[in-house]
Amino acid sequence: MSSWNYRTCPTTGFKVHNKAETLIQFNAVTSIVFLLVGGIVGLTLALTRWQAVHLLNDEWFYRFLSLHGIAMLVAWIVFFEMAVLYFASAVILNSRLAAPWVGWLQYLLMLVGGALVAVMILTGNADVMFTSYVPLKAHHLYYLGIILFAVGAILGCVVFFATLVVAKHEKTYTGSLPLVTFGAAAAAIIAIITLSAGAIVFIPTWLWAAGIIPVMDSEVYRLLFWGFGHSSQQINVAAMVSIWYLLATLTVGAVPLNEKVCRTAFVLYILFICIASEHHLLVDPGFSAAHKTWNTGYFMHLAVLASMIHAFSVPAATEVALRKQGHTRGAFEWLKKAPWGNPGFSSLVLSVVGFGFLGGITGVIYGTEQINIIAHNNLRIPGHFHATVVAGTTMAFMGITWYMLPLMFRRQVVAPKLASLQPWLFGGGMMMFSTAMMFAGGFGVSRRSWDMNGVDGPFQVNFGPIVDLSLAVMGISGVVAALGGAIFCLLAVATLLFGKKVNA
Amino acid sequence: MSVTSPQPGWWNSPLHKEEKIWITIAAVWCVFITLAMPWWHIFGTQNSSQEYYTINPDDYGTVVDKFIEQYTVGEEAGIPVVAPPAGAEIFLRGQQWMWDPILKLKKGETYRLHLSSMDVLHAMSIYPINMNFEVVPGWDYVLTLTPTTSGEFNIICNEFCGIGHHSMIGKIYVES
């Protein structure tokens, strides 16, 4: 057993397996590289949709938009989730990581797949957007890249579950799984289900692009794609909520109020959210209203119930913990005395507010059969998911990074003052950005359009000054958020290179 | 702590009163919004259409050509303008990167509007009333439509359909 090397973390007391630690480091660093790429590209997109600036030309706008979706929604988030899965299994359970070589295979497949996709997009071989709706066709290597990436992610989930088995077998913990690990397990189960749906859609699409399968039906593709595309966002939800609990514990020492309630809510995610994906097809031919309503109504709302439970549980546990620290005067002293200067804590609060109030509520509204008629494919939709995936998930992942750096990389964060400012710039900017986008969408400004006025078309459309104003607000808050994102990447890299070593 | 195993017997620890109240409110709300959707569908007046057929894009093109030939009254920006009679079956064709024909409709009359694409996915967004429907190759999507406002409306494509996507703008006239 000499190849298993452990150290004991002096802060948390966790036994850290060196191979788990290295894999966590590689996945986390790679995710931040993709965040940087996607962020730079995202900034140019915001400055193009801000009609007064209109930075890029049409070709590069669409190309960068495809890259932005892949780099952020796929690469940044999933690489980071792999780090979270290894942390939640090996580190939290004080266990060795099962089959580290499979973990390395996960890393390599995802890296090669992600790079292949990025190269295909940048060389103009895949101007198909993140959704790649057939029969719009990309080079077949683009689809292969997606498949390799997805297989890699599935392997990461396999390593996670195998580690749970090892830990149980070797008795590295007693009793039930800790809540964070339980939530990560929910995320991994959803990942396996939805990535399989991804395989069902992307393997035939790849063969079709390679000329082996003659025809693909657009509507069947849309159904299957969203079975993967939206449901896989629930991986992010489950991972993000686990991190909410983790951050609440690390920042103020919060204890879940009732383990049964929190865990049942995670099970609701697994059971119901995977099926709910037809809110993307509400204004499509091919499905009856009964079918769509059942899918988006019944299944979706049981998952919404789960989110509402967490939305109570996390703040309530935080309040209880802060009151225990002695902040008991009045109704709100605990809130006033909360550690607002701790970027982990402010990220947690911003993430809960951004995800719940802006992202969650608008998601439920736009997913209604009739309201979808006035929301489908206009800027309301990216407004909604920038609130969930960016102001919510990304904000939470950034928040936990401030703890990852000392715990996993053993470096003290450089410039902590700047770090405590970062969540406000990023989270605040992103919430404003989302709101402005949804506002412009209300006037019918379409998403994924280089020029809303139809500059090269037979007719021109003028949306008027209110839309110009909201797009300006969108552009400016996009710059603010990008600044917050840049500070995050800069501090993370600077900490890795120059941060003071924590007890070597 | 969320990073340590819970106390033995955690499954049986009782819920706090506030938790019970919140979960009840949340559950009732979810039941309400779940019932609201079918309720609105049955008693509301504006639903997404449920009428659709599969069709070969070439056949759809032939039908649209015939429709244009029959009712053309002019041309604008190189696109034919058609004025079909009230109550007719009317057709709109999406293709990279134009909508044709331009439709001239009468306020208060009901039409059956057929939507389909000749190549890739498109979507019809009617400006300025901001109503949006997917336009899918191989599928004939039929909307029953009664214009209630007269004037000029634009059709903006809002499903990405290639580099010329933003230039894909069409027109509908509604006369009183």
Question: Can you characterise this structure?
Answer:
By secondary structure, chain A is mostly helical. Chain A is 69% helix and 1% strand. Chain A is built from 14 helices and 2 strands, in the order ββαααααααααααααα. Chain A has helices at residues 18-49, 58-91, 100-122, 140-169, 179-209, 218-229, 233-252, 259-273, 289-324, 333-336, 343-366, 380-408, 416-441, 465-498, and strands at 6-8, 15-17. Chain A has a two-stranded antiparallel ribbon. The longest helix of chain A has 36 residues, at 289-324. Chain A is globular, with a radius of gyration of 22 Å. With 176 residues, chain B is an alpha+beta fold. Chain B has 2 domains: 10-43; 51-175, Sandwich (Immunoglobulin-like). Chain B has a 7-stranded mixed β-sheet. Chain B has a 5-stranded mixed β-sheet with strand order 1-10-7-4-5, covered by helices on one side. The longest helix of chain B is centred in the N-terminal third of the chain and has 27 residues, at 17-43. The termini of chain B are far apart. The mean pLDDT of chain B is 94. Chains A and B meet through helix 2, helix 6, helix 7, helix 8 and helix 9 of A and helix 1, strand 8, strand 9, strand 10 and strand 11 of B.
